[in-house]
Structure formats: structure tokens, C-alpha cells
Design brief:
Blueprint (H helix, E strand, L loop, with lengths): L2 E7 L3 H12 L6 E3 L8 E6 L4 H17 L4 E6 H6 L9 E5 L7 H10 L10 E3 L22 E4 L1 E2 L10 H5 L3 E2 L2 H13 L4 E5 L7 E2 L2 E2 H9 L6 E4 L9 H8 L7 E3 L7 H7 L5 H14 L4 E8 L6 H13 L4 E6 L17 H24 L5 E10 L2 E5 L5 E5 L8 E10 L2 E6 L1
Parallel strand pairs: 1-2, 1-3, 3-4, 4-5, 5-6, 7-10, 10-13, 14-15, 15-16, 19-21
Antiparallel strand pairs: 8-9, 11-12, 17-18, 17-20, 18-19, 20-21
Helix pairs in contact: 11-12
The site of iron/sulfur cluster has 10 residues, from helix 5.
Length: 434
């Protein structure tokens, strides 16, 4: 009988990409990959440590899984495993704690310790979380993700920026890039397997550098892959976006008209305390220029609420800026102290109530801005890459990241079709096939 192994992913798009890659290591007769609710023998949890919720979420998941399946063996891999290490040993059923440097080897690690159970001191969990090297890297798998129409393509990892609120440089190491040829190899295989949209992921992808090649070179090379219809850049730091990338996005081609550029705060004082690399004016100028170059592009952002020292006045500056900027939406994050992050030691902590109130105001503003952004497309035509059917509606995305729903009896999965956009409905648009 093969060992049943399941996966659960917390956190960012990069973690999703890496789970898809790790799963490929288990495509052998020894293992059967199952859903985590279907009593797996082993559950691999790809963890996140970006907020305190990440930690609590892992604990909740483990308790839930153990109630259904008391015998399950747990492998905690990824960011929490890297920064919290032995602290995770106390969690129920944990047998392996594997940090980011070695998590791609999880299939071999499990096989080896199942074959030689006594090797690591009997029942005590195994910790494999060495320091992460700065070298460029390759990935031995192709991230086929059977559950999604679009595929993530990891091109970079780690970060050298050390923003004061962020633990990522500790959890994922310093910035390093995937070998250029290795990226193209995986992209070609994904495209040949029918993934027509690839989302370039990493931690700080604008800093991509491999033997003189940059993100722009990667985009140009990927555009040459025939079966690939769309290339999307995931979150990218504001100071790392070359003008040529904005020009490429504005021109007809495969690069989606979509930029997600984290702002984090609209107050210069707070940006400085966060150790961000730009001021409000620089960010506003960049975003306005991108908007002028590609007026229909979907420009999104992230904002952190309640950073230590954020007064009502600082918050109002953020609110005012977000109101003014040509953003289609932004994600709102509540500040929380992270063990390795400098801001954990800063004074002027903001109360939970104030954080909740401010977050609520910003979420409402974001929803309003998204509806306004959608409104400009009513009556227009757009190409939609359809993904799935739910409640009688097929849904998919435009290159400008608008979720579009249409009614159709045909199978539209993975087809790129023209749609007339008719109305805004909540955080999506309804349309009809042309
Ligand atoms: S740029 Fe700043 S926020 Fe983003 S990963 Fe690097 S340190 Fe963290």
C-alpha cells in the first residue's frame, strides 16, 4: 500500500507555487497524493509566518486534522519551520520540521526516515533547517497544479531589503535568483501541458539578477513561448520596476496590464520607520506614470495598519493618499510584531481596537475603488481566460484581473474568449460571450 500524503498551504503565492513543486516529488509508487481531509498518513503543511495569524492558523489546522485522524504524521515545512525551529516540536503529531533551504527535498527526507525510523533518535521530531545559501538556484520539478488553470512560476527567493516590520529575510534568506535557463525550461513544460497564463512569483522579483539577466530579460524570453498567452507579474517592490516593464505592460503583448505594488503606508514618517526605500511622492509619481502609460491597467497595493507610532494623523495621510491614487484595490494588513523584525522593539504600539477600526475604513475604501475601477469597463469588450464553473456561471479573469462571470452551457475551461462586460456585481463583473 502506498503511503497517503496530503498538502496544506498557508500564506503567499510563492508558498502555493512551492507546494505544487513539492507535490511532484511524491509522484512515485511509494506515495499517493490525497486531499488533507481524506485521512492521509502524512500531512505536509507549508507554513507562513508573515503575521501572528499564520502561527495561530497552523495550530488550529493541526488540532483539526488530529481530531479526524489521530495517527497522522505532520511535516511542518517553510517559513515557520525556518524561524521557529524546535519551538514547533511541541505541536501535536509533528515528526519533521524542515526549513526553506531543504523543503524541496521533502519527499526524500520522508522516505529516508520512514525506511530508517531509528536513525534520528526514535520518536523525536527531525529538524532540518540549515542557514539558507545566497547562491542562485534551480528547481528539479515542474509545478503542474491540477487544481488551477493558471500556474505560478517561481523565479526568485529571499530579500535584502530588511524592512523593519518584516521577518522574510530571516525566514527565506537573502535575495537570490533562479537560473535563467531553468525558468524557461519549466515555463516551456507548463505551457506545453496547457497552462496558458503564468504568474511570475518570488519574494522580491524586481531584484531578479542572473548572469546579467534581469526580470525584463525573463519577460522577453517568456514571451517567445508560443503556447503561452499571458504572463503576469505578482507583487513587485515599487523601487525595482524598470521603465521598460511599464512600457511593455502598456504595449499590446503577453504581459498582463496588472501591477501589484506594495505601498504599506501613506505617511513619510511611517515609511521611514518601516525602512521602506521610497517616500510618498516617489510612490505617487511612479503610480501616476504607470496609470498614464496604461490607463486601463489594474494597479493594486498593500497597506499595513497600526505600525508602531502610527497616529490618527498618520493614518489619515494614508487614507487620503489611497483615496487619491489611481489604485483599483489594495489589501489591508493589521500590523503584528514578528520575532526577528526590528519593529517588534519599537514603542508607540497601536491598540487592537484602533487597528480594527482603521482596517475597516480602508477595506471599505478598497471595495469602493474596485467597483469604480470596474465601472469604466461596463459595455466594453474584454478577453477572459475561463477557469471554472460554479452555480451555473463560468468564471475567469481578464488580463486586468477582473473576475468575470458568464452563463454558458459550453465547457469554457482554459479557453480565452471575448466577453461583453455588462454590469458590476460585488467584487466581480457579469458579462456575455460575444
Ligand atoms: S521588501 Fe521588505 S516587506 Fe518585502 S520581503 Fe523584503 S523585507 Fe519583507
Amino acid at each position: 500500500m502506498p503511503t497517503k500524503v496530503a498538502f496544506y498551504t498557508f500564506g503567499c503565492r510563492l508558498n502555493q507555487a512551492e507546494t505544487a513543486l513539492m507535490q511532484q516529488g511524491f509522484q512515485t509508487a511509494e506515495y499517493q497524493v490525497v486531499d488533507y481531509r481524506h485521512s492521509p498518513d502524512v500531512l505536509v503543511v507549508n507554513t507562513c509566518t508573515v503575521t501572528e495569524n499564520g502561527d495561530a492558523d497552523t495550530r488550529r489546522l493541526l488540532n483539526k486534522v488530529r481530531r479526524i485522524n489521530p495517527q497522522v504524521k505532520i511535516a511542518l515545512v517553510g517559513c515557520q519551520a525556518q524561524v521557529q525551529r524546535e519551538k514547533l516540536f511541541d505541536l501535536p503529531n509533528v515528526r519533521w520540521v524542515v526549513g526553506n533551504a531543504r523543503k524541496m527535498e521533502i519527499a526524500q527526507i520522508l522516505s529516508r526516515s520512514e525506511a530508517h525510523p531509528g536513525e534520528n533518535g526514535g520518536d523525536s521530531p527531525q529538524l532540518i533547517a540549515p542557514t539558507i545559501s545566497r547562491e542562485s538556484f534551480t528547481i528539479p520539478f515542474v509545478g503542474f497544479d491540477r487544481e488551477h488553470t493558471r500556474a505560478n512560476l517561481k523565479i526568485q527567493d529571499g530579500c535584502d531589503f530588511f524592512c523593519s516590520f518584516c521577518e522574510i529575510p530571516y525566514a527565506r534568506g537573502r535575495a537570490r535568483s533562479r537560473e535563467f535557463g531553468d525558468i524557461l525550461n519549466e515555463a516551456r513544460q507548463l505551457a506545453a501541458a496547457g497552462y496558458h497564463e503564468l504568474i511570475l512569483t518570488g519574494i522580491n522579483i524586481g531584484t531578479y539578477q542572473y548572469e546579467g539577466k534581469t526580470l525584463l530579460d525573463a519577460l522577453e524570453a517568456l514571451e517567445g513561448i508560443e503556447e503561452l498567452w499571458r504572463i503576469r507579474i505578482s507583487s513587485i517592490e515599487p523601487t525595482t520596476i524598470a521603465n521598460e516593464i511599464v512600457e511593455k505592460m502598456a504595449a499590446p503583448g503577453k504581459l498582463c496590464r496588472y501591477l501589484h505594488v506594495p505601498l504599506q503606508s501613506g505617511s513619510d514618517a511611517i515609511l521611514q520607520a518601516m525602512k521602506r526605500k521610497y517616500g510618498v511622492q516617489e510612490f505617487a509619481d511612479f503610480l501616476s506614470a504607470a496609470h498614464r502609460a496604461a490607463p486601463e491597467a489594474c494597479l493594486g497595493s498593500d497597506v499595513i495598519v497600526g505600525f508602531p507610532g502610527e497616529s490618527e494623523a498618520h493614518f489619515e495621510e494614508t487614507y487620503g493618499l489611497l483615496l487619491e491614487l489611481p489604485l483599483a484595490y489594495f489589501h489591508v494588513f493589521s500590523y503584528s510584531d514578528r520575532g526577528h523584525a526590528k519593529s517588534s522593539n519599537y514603542g508607540g504600539k497601536v491598540s487592537r481596537e484602533a487597528i480594527a477600526q482603521r482596517s475597516q475604513r480602508l477595506r471599505e475604501l478598497s471595495a469602493r475603488k474596485r467597483r469604480l475601477y470596474f465601472q469604466q469597463f461596463v459595455g466594453k469588450e474584454a478577453l477572459v481566460l475561463f477557469e471554472q464553473q460554479k452555480n451555473g456561471f463560468w468564471s475567469g479573469l481578464t488580463d486586468t484581473y477582473i473576475r468575470v462571470k458568464v452563463q454558458s452551457d459550453l465547457n469554457l475551461e482554459n479557453r480565452l474568449l471575448p466577453v461583453r462586460l455588462e454590469e458590476v456585481e460585488g467584487q466581480a463583473m457579469k458579462g456575455r460571450l460575444i
